[in-house]
Amino acid sequence: MKLASYQHQDEVRVGVVDGDQLVDPLAVETGTSALGAGIRCFATMQGVIENQEQAMLLARKAVEISREKGVGRFALAEARLVEPLRPSTILCAGSNYLSHNAEKAGSDTSGKEPEFFVKTADCIVPHKGNIVHDAALTQKLDGEVELAVVIGKPGRHIPRERALEHVFGYTIVNDVTARDRQVRFRPDGSSWYELGRGKVFDTSAPIGPFIVTTDDIPDPQVLNISSRVNGELRQNSNTSQMMWGVAELVHVFSINLTLRPGMVIITGTPSGTAWSMDKELGGKWSGGNGIVPAKGYLQPGDEIECEIENIGILSNRVVSSAG
After folding, report:
1. How much is the pLDDT for 189?
2. Residue 185: which pLDDT band, with cuts at 50, 70 and 90?
3. Above 80 in pLDDT, residue 250?
4. Bridge-partner residues for 313, per DSSP?
5. Bridge-partner residues for 193, per DSSP?
6. Reduced to 3 DSSP states, what percent helix, strand and coil does the chain have, rounded to the nearest 5?
7. Helix or strand or coil: residue 76?
8. Do residues 230 and 17 make contact, with C-beta atoms less than 8 angstroms apart?
9. Do the beta carbons of residue 259 and residue 166 sit within 8 Å?
10. Where do the CATH 3.90.850.10 domains begin and end in the chain?
11. What b/e readout covers 256-279, taking b as 16+ CB neighbours within 10 angstroms?
12. Mean pLDDT of the chain
């Protein structure tokens, strides 16, 4: 099932994508009184996630009634989509594709274990929201398409073989990065990463446009993943190329934290970032799969699209902080 959050008058509500239409279960209930009080969980995506079994049953019933009676539905293209959810915690795994490791300066842990950093709700912008290019922060703003895992069931020390049972669904996150804040060099020329200032800043986590539940993506390791800047193909890979798959990452992060419904894990990016063309920061272009080498880092006016099979396209424009 594909879900979206959208602006409905002065509130945000959750809709179910049905082809090129968006079905609002709350509107179906208002028009028919056929779903009952439990449908109030669709007032927020967090409510849907926390009540997922009941919510999925009600959503399917709402779509059936909407098709039959023509109530509670409108064109998806007319919806003002917002971020599908706003997690307080985004757990991030870096250096998780061999191809990306091959195109950049290495850190002490690159390719040995998932790099662990965190983004917060303050970083989030929705589909079609603006990524702010703040020249006081960075001159080397880069984008990274990443599969994002939405946790649905709480747990700590989750075994790998049970990990996918804790997943509600999947969305897309663009892990926007200030490369000149991230990559630092020691006197001997070796590099280390400052993942705080390089990764955590306003508008550094575009998310959306949809969450697709696990019944439509039973295997997260078979999805094509790509990004484009101004229409040029920059990244093009498949989630099968992850070194640590979704189940492993859920297991690893649950060792540190109790994973809770609505938390998000992002899973790394493949090659093709602008970093690959930056020799000053240790970049090494590797090419392949039809990708086009970046002419430079993201600039105001650029449009970056992140696409993952069965989920959709997350599109954002870069704007200047100067206005």
Report:
1. 81
2. confident
3. yes
4. 307
5. 183
6. 25, 35, 40
7. helix
8. no
9. yes
10. 89-320
11. eeebbbbbbbbbbbbbbbbbbbbe
12. 94
Six-digit token string for 202 = 């306003």
CATH fourth-level superfamily of 89-320: Fumarylacetoacetase-like, C-terminal domain (3.90.850.10)
Considering just the CA atoms, what is the radius of gyration of the chain in Å?
20
**Chain CA centroid to CA 18, Å:** 21
Print burial letters for 150-187: b (CB count within 10 Å at least 16), e (below 16).
bbbbebeebeeeebbebbbbbbbbbbbbbbbbbbeeee
Structure-token match 């303050």, residue found: 122
* Separation of alpha carbons 143 and 174, rounded Å: 6
DSSP β-ladder status, 167-174 and 211-213 = antiparallel
Q: How many CB atoms lie within 10 A of CB 85?
A: 24
Task: Give yes or no for a contact between 234 and 292, defined as CB atoms under 8 angstroms apart.
Answer: yes
Residue 307: closest CA among 203, 234, 200 = 234
Residues present in the chain in total: 323
pLDDT at 111 over 80: no
C-alpha 117/C-alpha 195 separation (Å) is: 7
Cα four-point dihedral sign 296, 104, 205, 16: positive
Q: How far apart are CA 213 and CA 289, in angstroms?
A: 29
CA 134 vs CA 9, 81, 186, 320: distances in Å: 32, 25, 26, 6
